[in-house]
Amino acid sequence: MQPAALCRGLATSLPANVVVHEETTVTWLDAGPPHELWTDRGSVRTPELLLANNGFLSGFGFYRHHLIPVVTWGSMTRPLTDGESASIGGPRTWGVIPAAPSGTTVRRLSDGRILIRKTSTRTAAIRWLGGGGASGPAGPTGGPSRRGSRDWSTCPSSTHGAGR
After folding, report:
1. Checking phi first, is residue 40 left (phi over 0); if not, alpha (psi -120 to 50) or beta?
2. pLDDT tens track for 94-148
3. Which end of the chain is more exposed for a tag (fewer CB within 10 A), N or C?
4. Residue 107's closest CA among 83, 75, 70, 82?
5. pTM
């Protein structure tokens, strides 16, 4: 399964009352409900919110002690020529996995490419950048922020967009 293709397919099949804001940097969030999100182009208020930050959700203050982000490094060749494929020999597709859980895997894919997944590493979570509650930092309108507010303006993953 190709994750980006899955997301695009799901986005095209959403009901008419759902709006997807792609490539929209969220600079502030007041977690509700209602949830209020601010961007450079305006704000959105919604009773429901889907945060698509993958394993980095804890870096935004949610599920702080429940997630461990992991990064897997990989490389993939271009499709091999018939001659290159013949020089390897063997079955058209195969996979080699290591005995160690975080070791390197090598796969020969049906489209003629070789995929190498290198070791997995735990990553540091993105630092939570906001306060919370009425005594927390001021919101974008100058008043005190509500519970769960986060200033996302400097978070690298904040550019991945907000959901419904």
Report:
1. alpha
2. 999 888 877 889 999 999 999 998 876 665 544 434 433 333 344 444 444 444 4
3. N
4. 75
5. 0.41
Using CB atoms within 10 Å of the CB of residue 109, give its burial: 0 to 12 exposed, 13 to 18 middle, 19+ buried: middle
3-state secondary structure of 39: strand
Q: Is 90 left (phi over 0), alpha (psi -120 to 50) or beta?
A: left
Q: Cα separation of 106 and 116, whole Å?
A: 5
Under DSSP, the state recorded for 141 is T
Contact 148, 31 (CB under 8 A): yes
User: Quick check: helix, strand or coil at residue 149?
Assistant: coil
From the number of C-beta atoms within 10 Å of its C-beta (0-12, 13-18, 19+), residue 74 rates as exposed
Rounded to whole angstroms, the Cα distance separating 61 from 29 reads 11
| Total residue count of the chain as it appears in this document | 164
Query: Per-residue DSSP letters for 63-131?
Result: STTT---EEEEEEEPPPPPHHHHHHH-S-SSEEE--SSTTS-EEEE-TTS-EEEEEEEEE-PPPPP---
Q: List pLDDT tens digits, range 78-96.
A: 999 999 999 999 999 999 9
